[in-house]
User: Fold this.
Amino acid sequence: MSKKPKLLVVDDQDRYIELAHALLRDYDYATRCTLPGPCWTCSERPGCTLTHAHDAAEADEALSRHPDVDVVLLDVTFDVPEARLVPARAEPGKAPPTLAQRQRLQGLDILAHLRRARGDLPVVLMTSERELGYEGAARRLDADEFATLAGEAAFDARALSLLVERVLARHHDSPEAGGYTWGESAAMARLRRDATALARTSLPMLILGEPGTGKSALAERVVHPATNRKGPFVAVDLSSIPESLAAAELFGTARGAFSGAVDRRGRFEEAGGGTLFLDEVGNLPPEAQRMLLLALQDRRITRLGESSPRSVDVKLIAATNADLGAKVRDGSFRADLLARLNPAARLVLPPLRERAADIDELLTGFVRKKLAHGPDRTLLAEYLEAIGEDGSPHAELSLGPSSRRNTRGIEFVLDRPSVTAVRRHGWPGNVRELELFIANAIVFALSDALSAAREGRAQKGARTIPVPGRLVQELLAGQELGVIDASAHGEGTLLLTPRRGASLHAVASDLERQLYEHLFKETGGDFDRMAGSLFEKPDLQSGRKVRLRFNQLGLRARARPTRKKSS
Amino acid sequence: MTEPRTKHLPHDSMHDAMHDSMHDLIHDLIHDVAKYLTRVARNLPKDGPIPEVLGAMLVKDLYETHRQRPASARFDELAHAIEDPALRAGLRAHLTEIDALEQGVRSGDAPSMRRAAELALIFDRELRAFVEASAGG
Assistant:
């Protein structure tokens, strides 16, 4: 990874940050300061109080400034005035904690506070179980998968660094962080072995698989980290780049190479020292294929408009769902380029229907990931509040009967008939389709449960949410996208066919492309008239904007019908 | 600044509360004295010069720790939690020796710093052994 992990230290005094700055310099730090550079080189350092957060409010401030924090190092005892403590929680049947008790375990309250916003943020509590001392404290931590006690490592820089690395690795592999779910099928086990072995070589890699099987996820989350390369992971979707721009996008341009060209690095240079992932490589136009072949042979690229080549050091991963052999036979893909892409060691992602045994594990992982961040997590927190439950918003999925005893947080339950239906479904859109299905199912079920709780129709403390069987049936039926029935719509209705199994972005681009094609034909290629249909208030520039977008969508103006010349 | 935590303890409550208050005192001994005392001691390079930044931190750990006072002063406030007078005296002796090394540590004298760090680690080890034994018993 090119980026150093970023740590946030939350400590009422300077002890941990001093230690970290003195001895843990392989990390970036989330400070509340705007000056560039590491703190230990800063001339303002003596007396600076912005290097870290001293309480919950300052932790919020630091996290809002640095949403990319990787790990929080959190002190437990905070010797600060009451006004700066997280408000005390009233526990039924117990006397409210004294100020001293609140100070002594303030770190746990800050942890709960952080969890409201960031459920999967790894937190290392700079204490040991013995120091925590209270049974209740240990119980509160049991439910938190991403909290780790530093124990003896708290003040041992080397041990602490190793602990942070372990925490980062564990988090990286978790469903919440989008870790790759391998499942238990033999095909995936082979794929895992081959992918990690090839990643460590200098050979290019070719990933094949149907749409939605997870080719880009395999490249980004598995192969790139396994390369141990310091540079970034750069992904290029060649299906979304107009043919005429593909070479410039990949190899860069020099000023004056063509009208409007500026000095710009291409994706090869951006990925220097790292990994370049070319998705839908079968869409590469002939000239860009030639340049890619040279890049693979010589490890050098030449920007468009330049004559001197530049050295590049990238691990190349290409992916496609097309039959490249057939493309070679019909002449649309170079045989020598295919040979360079190392087809003998290709990685083939099996379709979901061939790894049905993995469906359960994928479903449970997707639910945890879906509710770990963003608005869905907020919805879950609102539900917890509505049923009078405290604690970190977390949810698990149970398949078949409820397994309440083994589940922490909220439990979503798919009943047996639903589980059977899910396992029998064909999943033509593969893993992507499965992820969308379960995301919809839990969000609809959660929304209904929240409404019921707010209207007083739910039991207090109802931590189990059944996913209705009818909802599952509707969602599975709705996965089959079809052409919209024209008869159901009025005059002027345009029929557009969404691409099955594509990402939302790809679907939107495809629909937009269809719309532009339709208008192009309808107007005889008149961009001003097209603008009249597309813009609410077209102006003199609208036609030009439409032509630009038309080109960006990869459509060809030269295909327009011949227009009569006026004499 | 808040008042010292020990003032908030329920001294006049029943047995459980007394137990809790002793528990709190032990916790404070480990947290405020042993843990902070060993921060730099655990990380000193085995040989060679001691970086200036670590020297400054060591001074803070030993002589300007809990509310800018020496670790020994904080120990004296909490030491009655240790019922064994011999252990209490032994632990205090380590801190007395650390206090005696203050001038050398502050002036950056490496042998003084290493000896003080060694004593800090011994103190921590003996106190934690006592806590473990108490919990086990």
